[in-house]
């Protein structure tokens, strides 16, 4: 049976300095591998900038975000089926751009708890390959870790936002 990871929501405070994160404050969230488990850490921007942890090899994912308004409803811009479809159709992608796109899609699907991380292996070239499966399925999907820095992840995420259609017909919730 595959191991299930429950990654917590923001704690509301910086993991380094302990200061409370204010509504609309930008911060960096990371998912870190700790003894075969995944843990979430949040950093206020000043602590992140001086932390020197930008390329920590134990980080599975890094993203910039803002503390949401307390009554703000969650907005779904893209249908989950569409995300899963893109993910499964890129299984054999070899092009670096598509590999990066698939990696970011995998991170999104993991955050939505639709994709489960089962482990990691190295391919013949020495690249890390995540072994994953979609929730409710036993089919194994391979995700190549392209070792993108946070700038590259942000660039691919922006492209993802441009490519995928919004579920908001009036465009009111677009950022």
Verbal overview:
The chain is an alpha+beta fold. It has 2 domains: 1-69, no CATH class; 80-163, no CATH class. It has 4 helices and 6 strands. The strands form 2 sheets. The protein has a 3-stranded antiparallel β-sheet with strand order 2-1-3. A 3-stranded antiparallel β-sheet has the order 4-5-6, covered by helices on one side. A hairpin with a 5-residue loop joins strand 5 and strand 6. Helix 2 (80-89) packs antiparallel against helix 3 (96-111) and helix 3 crosses helix 4. The longest helix is centred in the middle third of the chain and has 16 residues, at 96-111. It is globular and about 45 Å long. The termini are far apart.
- Tell me, rounded to a whole number, the average pLDDT: 80
Question: Main beta sheet: strand number and arrangement?
Answer: 3 strands, antiparallel
State the end-to-end distance.
39 Å
What structural category do the secondary elements indicate? alpha+beta
Q: Tell me, what's the shape?
A: globular
Give the total of beta strands.
Answer: 6
Helical segment tally?
4
- Please trace the helix and strand order, writing H or E for each element: EEHEHHEEEH
Name the poorly predicted regions.
Answer: 166-175
Domain tally: 2
Beta-strand portion reads 25-35%
* Side-by-side strand order of the widest sheet: 2-1-3
Query: What Rg is obtained from the alpha carbons, in whole angstroms?
Result: 17 Å
| Helix percent band | 25-40%
